[in-house]
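Interim report, section 4.2 (structural modelling).
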Amino acid sequence: MLGNIDLLTLAPVLNIQLLLDGLFIGSIFVLAAYGLALVWGVMNVKNLAQGEFVIMGGYFAWHLTTFGIHPIVGLPIVIAIMFVFGWLLYVLIIKWVVTRDLFTSLLATFGVALVVQQALNLAYGPEVRTADSGFSTRTLFDGLVTVAEIKVISFFLCILLAGAVVLFMKKSRMGQAIRATAQDARAARVMGIDTEKIYAFTFALNAAICGAAGVLISMIWVIQPFYGVAHSIRSFVIVTAAGLGNLPGVIITGLGLGVAEQYSGFVLGAEFQQATVVILLVVVLVWRQIQLARHRQYIQ
Amino acid sequence: MSTDQTSWIVYVLVLIAGIVAPLVFPSYVNQISVLWLMILFALTWDIVGGQMGYNSLGNIFFFGAGMYVSAVVQIAIFTDVGAYTSARGGEQLVLDYGDYFLGLFAGIGSAAIACVLFAIVLGWIMLGLRGPYFAIGTLGVALAARELAGTWEWIGGGSGIAMPVYPGLPDEKSLVFYILFFVLAVLTFLYVRWLYSTRFGLAINAIRDDEEKAEAMGIHTMRHKIVAWAISAFFLGMSGAVFGNVTGFVEPLEVAFPAATFGIFMVVMSLLGGKGTLWGPVIGATVFHVIKEVTWTYMLGWQWVALGVLIIVNVVFFQQGILGWVKEKWPEKFGLVVDDRGASREASS
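Predicted structure of the assembly:
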């Protein structure tokens, strides 16, 4: 089972391959996790449908390719669709759970996740799909390391999108209002901010970010109606490990998770790749709890 | 507290229904035994989720763990497990009645014990998590178990284990397992009913209402939480062992750890009936299962979408559940005194 470790020491170049793949995929995890951190931090809704939004975006991009629209061109279209979808979902469901206890939001979004994945399954079938972007693959180090051009492009798109969102949150009036609501919703209302609108916008923005992540995933990896759960769990792992409102933390854990997944998939075998994510979730939660317990003792 | 004031007539009626049902509807015996399983699911979920306020999304773990433990024990009594599973069902265990039931009851017993041990170890780790973290963490445990069971070759990996073959006819098998499910569900109900009338019941209610205050009042919260979870695991483990034998085939994704079906059904059923009540889970499970069985096949693939919508509507707009709603409507029927100052409206349940 661990035989591949020898391979890594014998051919160190393979490490570069794993690292690169991990970083490329991890950058997309960061995007989705940032969306979750946003919704979690601003409106205290733990969105279990995060991964389904990602997969949904991916399917829209794939669907657009069947009309001959290139996924990268389709990116803004998908973002717009997902934004509207997020807004609708907020008005229909999320609005009623914002003020309720946390388990309510968790279970309600779980229901949303179930509906989305089953609807996707009915619409597109259970096959694994990839949106074909038509770029070639380059080889480095005498063919030992392969880098698909689309992965590099997606990496830079990711940085661009994340930069745009961060800039938006920092500079624009809306972004400032969102951050004010996150700090203290009541005070924000006193200051004349329509928090209801802010919540709707935040949730829609999250859906749009996830949709964008989905487009990138559909280009460099695979999508399938039921792969969303793994993406949701990844987002939770990243946000729980990094903490809310800790953007550098989210970036580092996201990239780290991408690399860790690639390594575990290579060393332990592909069937352990999913298990790694889930086990990491439990480990992160327990680790956080131990930290809290220590903190409590310290106070005592 | 829950001094159960249900008239004894209700109990007699339920018992008679349970005994008569398989005789009146002989072609639906399997569906009715799943109904008893569903009632057991909802009741065990409600111990931790409703009465103690720890909403677990991963209780299905104990169901699957019990199933696997029982499968391994039942096979290990008669043959070597590794060789048996590596044959990929090529050789099935064919036993006579005595050996079969010996293996079955040994399997159920060891599943119960193993699940209690699992609950103690896991509870010690997980039950320190609060609120949504507990829910996500338990979901993670169930999913991790599912992935790991799929990679562990000794217990058959992704292709599963074939259980020993029942020595009699299929109809007889259905009836035997109907009786097992029925007895298990009734035992669970009676145990839970007794449990909620004890100090222990009060203590876990106190944990639900305010854990810090409960601790300050001298309740050893961690110990209570672990014991409550272990009770839930005890019954779930046994039900898993029985279910594995009914199906005849144990496999990690659909049979042992169906986190998205049975795992979520138990939450939905408890919420539908009214969580934190004695009869709520029973009513919720019955309503849910009957609706599901009647409409499922007519929905042509839309049933899962309908289930998701049901969860959303149930959680967002109807969280008090059927029994909670009835209680709000006619509180005097439940011996609740409606105080105009609005103080003791939810005093007892």
